Amino acid sequence: MRGHLNKSYPAFFIRGLSGDYMDSDIFKDNDISFFDSRSNFNKRIPFKAYLLDGEMCGITKHTHDYMQIWYVCKGVCSHWINNNEHRMVKGDLFVIPPYVVHQMRKIKDEDVKIIGIEFSTEFVSSEYDDFTKNKGFFDFAYLEPFLVSKDMVKPKLVLSHEAQMEVEKLTMEMLKEYDSEERYYELYIKANLLKLLAVIAREYAKSPKDKESDEIFDKYRNAILNSIQYIKDNFTQDLHLDDVCKHSMMSKTYFCYVFKNLTGKTFTEFHTELRIQKALELLNTTDASITEICYSVGYNDVTHFCRTFKKQVGVSPRLYRKERAE
């Protein structure tokens, strides 16, 4: 069902709607459209996945009785909630609980790509299919950070680089399973959905809570993303924090703060991880000696390289290659 909220609606829609999740004022607004689970989900499971490539839906004020997650893979778009605009760029995500009014708008001349995930609570647990009556369960589960009143809904979440990679992987796998409907696709989707919610909840817990922090992230986010690419392109070189700060044109204090929050790692940790990952690749795919690999990934001292490798991987480079060969 899609329609204006002042019109008739099915009985299940009005059942048990006392509580923070439902704002009775939305019934009075003729311009708000309502989407219900029964007509939105047309497969055997109350779940939907889709890719918006250059297109945009939800451009009018609307609400729905199911959860909605949108992840921006590319470009820029505008998310309106509580009459405030929030620009979303690649790596941003939002989670909208049931009965919250919002809308999306495309930015002129911007090519945007979005993965959408929608699901009813019954898909997470059939015993808890009513948000308003069973919030106690979710206080200790995946959805608790997102089940808040309309004034507390987070309009966007800035994901760390590590979380971006995980979210893209999980959502693309769900999209593939949803489209293919291969045997046991429901289990694949549910497993990935639970993991996705856990990843988002973890990011939500460590995201900036105040306006000043949000402004810092918005201002320097692109600079940090460019710096990440710069590090990836030059990690085998004698790269220092000062070099990257100059490249990003940021002070060391701001750079370290925003970089850690976006990637979950310090510059040194991120740089080291790239080098060790490359060393693992070379150990697996070439016959190069440990010394040659040490120098090729940017280290000038074999002892230091082996010590760092063992700290990261758990075994020495020589033992790692031997075990992989066996």
From TrEMBL:
InterPro entries: AraC-bd, Homeodomain-like_sf, HTH-like, HTH_AraC, HTH_AraC-typ_CS, RmlC-like_jellyroll, Tscrpt_reg_AraC-type_HTH. SMART domains: HTH_ARAC. It holds the Pfam family AraC_binding. Keywords: DNA-binding, Transcription, Transcription regulation. Residues 225-323 form the HTH araC/xylS-type domain. PROSITE patterns: HTH_ARAC_FAMILY_1 (PS00041), HTH_ARAC_FAMILY_2 (PS01124). GO terms for molecular function: DNA-binding transcription factor activity; sequence-specific DNA binding. This is HTH araC/xylS-type domain-containing protein.
